[in-house]
Amino acid sequence: SILLRLYDAMAGLYKPDLLAPYLKLDQGDSIQAEYVWVDGDDGLRSKTMTVTKQVKSIDDLRIWDFDGSSTNQAPGHDSDVHLRPAAIFKDPFRGGNNILVLAETYNNDGTPNRTNYRHHAKKIMDLAKNEHPWFGLEQEYTLFDADGSPYGWPKGGFPGPQGPYYCGVGTGKVFARDLIEAHYRACLYAGIKISGINAEVMPSQWEFQVGPCEGIEMGDHLWMARFLLIRIAEEWGIKVSFHPKPLKGDW
């Protein structure tokens, strides 16, 4: 159908072979800092700035802003929302000294944005810092084609029942292993404390684990791992759902 052809065209817009020679160009002493934040719908957004000095900590980065009315984080008449750097990771897409910056969101009056749950979580973690709390989390996710169908499933149909897919090996048992391995290596490069991966019981459903992490670091590393997964899947023309049970059935 025309709609399916449109989805296929959208999935093929990314041209890494065309991008590659430009990423090799010398950028001098400039650093690209991509700010990443959680929007008003629990999605992820990002924008990039040029930094002209070496970045050793978040104190070397400036507060930025964005149009919160476009991210469900502010009304149109008072749309400026500020981004305050919270954590820094190496950038696996651009390499070099370029960085990814996880940022918190604040309103014009300096108060935390209503979507800034990190602010409140950090206050609690700071109260318990002498206890050195450790955390580890599993993140399940499912991959979908650009048209919304589960990745690798028969179009308009279903795969065989669960059994061979969990921690599976071999054609017909696992899907998109190349994407999953790319995400794993990107997390390690970025400095994310990813501790493992495995295929889940449903075809095209996977899981990665993050931790052990101490205090607020747990949330920072998990959110950045999610960002990397979505960003890498973008290059494959694949959508990611973090819903624990996105499809009905015995999965």
UniProtKB/TrEMBL annotation:
All copies of domain GS catalytic, residue ranges: 117-251
Stretches assigned to the GS beta-grasp domain: 31-110
Name of the protein: glutamine synthetase
GO molecular function (one): ATP binding
Domain of life: Eukaryota
Compartment annotation: Cytoplasm
Protein's UniProt keywords contain Phosphoprotein: no
Predominant place of localization: cytoplasm
A GO CC term attached to the entry: cytoplasm
The EC number(s) this enzyme carries: 6.3.1.2
GO biological process per UniProt: glutamine biosynthetic process
